[in-house]
Protein: Acid protease
Amino acid sequence: MTGTQAIGNVTVFNPAPVTRELNAIFYKYAKAQQFLQGIDVHPETHPEAGYPQFVPPDTSGALLTNIQASPSQPDSSDPDSPSAPSSTPKLLHALTGPGDDTPNIIGMPPMAPGTIQMLLKDYISGAMDVLYYGPLNFGSPPQSLTVDIDTGSADLWVPEGCQGCGNDQFFSKQSSTFRRSTTRCAITYGSGKVSGTLATDIVGLGTASVSGQTFCAVRKESSDLNDEPNSGLLGMAFGSIAQSGKATFFENLLAQKQLAQSVFSVHLTRTRETGSQVCFGCYDATKAMGPVRWNSVISRTYWSIAMDGLSVNKTLSVSANLTAAIDTGTTLIYLPSGVADDFYALIPGSASAMQYGAGKRLTRILDSVANNYTTGFYTVPCDTTVTVALILNGETFSIYPSDFNLGRTDVDSNDCVGGILALGNGFPQNLAIIGDEFLKSWYSVFDYSGRVGFARSINNG
Structure:
């Protein structure tokens, strides 16, 4: 996770939460190379079978309204830039239910049949958006607990009978449908470790619910998780990599035909506690501007797509043949060290940030094997005006400038820490982790037919 410390009018970078996220990334993606090669994965159930191909709403002939930009967001003549014109129109539209050909166009889209909206809160530390979490119901009668939304993992867990856990817990004795197994579960990702036993119960959101949903009933969690506002975590990667070996909540909703479409869409705000959301079975066109640009999924494990490189100011670029995991549960962007070095070499005045452990060796025990990993931070001039973008499937996707800048190295420094970090020895050299730093600029559609789509977010309008 990330954070900053505000001193007067100057924002100073706080490395501690970033270091915690770096450490956790190695655990979270410890088996990524095997998974992406189809090793040690569970059989695919293809819960999207029987659903029609998702088509984003057509903006032609629909009600449009001009969106007034915040004065703090600059204009640009480039429609793909994070600082696009404030007069860009947006569509006010909600997906309709199956068989209904009439769009429902009003100021705020209602939830149509087969669609569920989870409203998220943004946990903000200093000037940084750390994580996004929303409510999920457990048991009979339902108990509401908050979960971090994580497309980089596939397990669901909440605390239950957990001594020392700091947030709200699930009281299993109050649920008539709770069933505990004897199978142990232990999950390490995000910023800590949890352990307990696998259990099943009714898990629901809005009008939809899944009977017999498997989750980890956590009895023990590391103390650093007590600093976070959410009780648990909802994994939304493919169930093929679930440590439980069971289908995810979203996959069960699909299998039980409770959704109108085999997609979920994510809108993440920037330094706003409210306004973020996940749209289950739907696409909220009030959160996006312009067309959806699609990227085929490489492996039905992570939401993994092809990344061709990065660009600076649209004229300079670094070529790379990477697999990018789109991960709402990660704050920043992580690249192989060689690619990160080449990228920062394109930014005048950039340097390796040795004071934060650039090239630092981390020793971790993964699958009973000691592995050494190296990590890297970089600085750029605080007054740099470069435009940074990812190149995905041959197309350029910009990152909003303030999201790339993590803060000054010191209150009097002119150097700021860049939001793209390096993962070196011991980490797959063809893997990139693309977190919220990127997703805040792009409304994201995760389609179980095997693709990920991005439309420019209203955050940048």
Residues 68 and 86 are 6 Å apart (CA to CA). The radius of gyration is 21 Å.
